[in-house]
Amino acid sequence: MESTMNNTKVQPVDEVKDPVERENKQLNPPQMKLIIGGLVVTAVLMVYLMVNFHAMQPLLLIIGLGLGYTLFHARFGFTSAFRRVMSVGNGQALRSHMVMLAAAVTLFAPILAFGVSFFDTGVSGYVAPLGVSLIVGAFMFGVGMQLGGGCASGTLYAVGGGRTVMFITLLFFIVGSTIGAYHLPFWTEELPSFQPVSLATTTGLGYGGAWLLSIALFGLIAWITLVVEKKKRVPKMAPVPTTSGWKRILRGSWPLFAAAIVLAILNALTLMTRGAPWGVTSAFALWGSKVADFIGFDVASWGYWSGESAQVLQASIFADSTTVLNFGVIIGAFLASAAGGLFKFSKINGKNVMASVIGGLLLGYGARLAFGCNIGAYFGGIASFSLHGYIWGILALAGTFVALYLRPLFGLSVPKSKDTFC
C-alpha cells in the first residue's frame, strides 16, 4: 500500500497487518518451558504478596495477569488505533475503544455513585484539573507513543511478549516519568489551570445523566468512523492467527470487541479492589525516583513526593498497587505469548533505538504532565466521567497526526501501521 500525508488513496486489496501475523501464518505449539517458568514466577510473587502485604495486592496481581493476557491475545491497541485513524481512516480499533468505554462507564457509574468496594477503602475515579499541563502533556504523549512504538499498557505487554526494542522504550519511559515528576509543580502551580470537571458531579447531571451523555458521545464517535470508512476505501485489519473452540480462550486471538468488554470489567474490578481505576505510569515515576534517591538525588524534597506521597516513596515498590498491576500485565502477556507459541526476542536497529529513546522520554514526561496516560487519563478518566479524559484523547490524536510526519525519519511505517503491539 502506497500512501502519503497528502494523498491517502490506497489499493482495495491492502490490509493493516501485525508483524506477528506476517511471521506466523498459523499458531505455533505452546512453549511449555516458558509457560511453566512464568507460572512459577507468578506463584512465587503471589506467595510473597500474600505473606508480606495487604490482601488486595495478590488480588491485583491476578487482575493484572488478566489485563496482560487480554491485551496480548486481542492485540488490543491504543497507539495503533490512533495511528490507523489518522493515517488511513481505519476506525475499527477506535470503535472497540468506544465499546470498552461504554462498558466501563456502565460499570463505573454505580460503583462510584454508591461507593462499592471489596475492602472498604472508599472509591474515587480519576478526575483531574484542566490546564496547560494537560494540553502539553497529552500532546507529547501522542507524539511519544507513535515514536516509541507503544503506549503505557502497550509498552508493558510488548515487553512481556518479547519485543526487544520496547525494553528501551520502557527504560526511557521511566526516565521521562521521573523527570516529569520533578518538574510537575512548575506545570501545575506556575501555569494556568482550572478545577477538575466531572460530567456527573460538577455539571449536576448525576451519574445517570452523565452515563447517557457518555453513551451518546461514544455512539457519535463510532458513527463518524463508519462514515469516514464509507467515503474512503480504507485498508482492512488482517486477522490474527487463531484456533477454534475453547482453545481460543487460551491460545487464539480474541475479537477486539470481546477484549474491550473484558478490559472494562477488569478495570471495574480494579476500582473496587484498590479504590481507584487501573493506572500504569505512576509506578514508573516511583521506580525512577527510587533509583534517583539511591544514587544521591534529594527526591524527598520534590513537590511530587510531598504529603502522603512521601510514604509511598519510602515503602517497598510491592506495596504500591500500580506496581503490582504492572508486573501482572507483563507476566500475563508473557504467558499469553508463550501459550500461542509466539514469544521470541525481536531484532532492533539504530533508528528504532533512537525512536524508542525519544518516544520513551516523551511518553513518561507527557504522562506526568497530563495526569495519566492512555490508561489512567483516557480509559480511566473517561470511565470516571472526567472531562480531562476527553481532552486527553483529542490532544493525543493531535500528537499522533504530527508524529505521522516524524515516523519515516526513523524508518517507521505510517500507512501500513506495522507497529501494532499497542
TrEMBL record:
It holds the Pfam family Sulf_transp. The lineage of its organism: Bacteria, Bacillati, Bacillota, Bacilli, Bacillales. The chain crosses the membrane at residues 34-53, 59-78, 99-119, 165-184, 204-228, 249-269, 324-343, 355-379, 385-406. It is a multi-pass membrane protein. Belongs to the TsuA/YedE (TC 9.B.102) family. The keyword Cell inner membrane applies. Residues 12-23 have a biased composition (Basic and acidic residues). Residues 1-23 are annotated as: Disordered. It comes from Halalkalibacillus sediminis. This is Uncharacterized protein. Residues 1-10 have a biased composition (Polar residues). Keywords: Cell inner membrane, Cell membrane, Membrane, Transmembrane, Transmembrane helix, Transport.
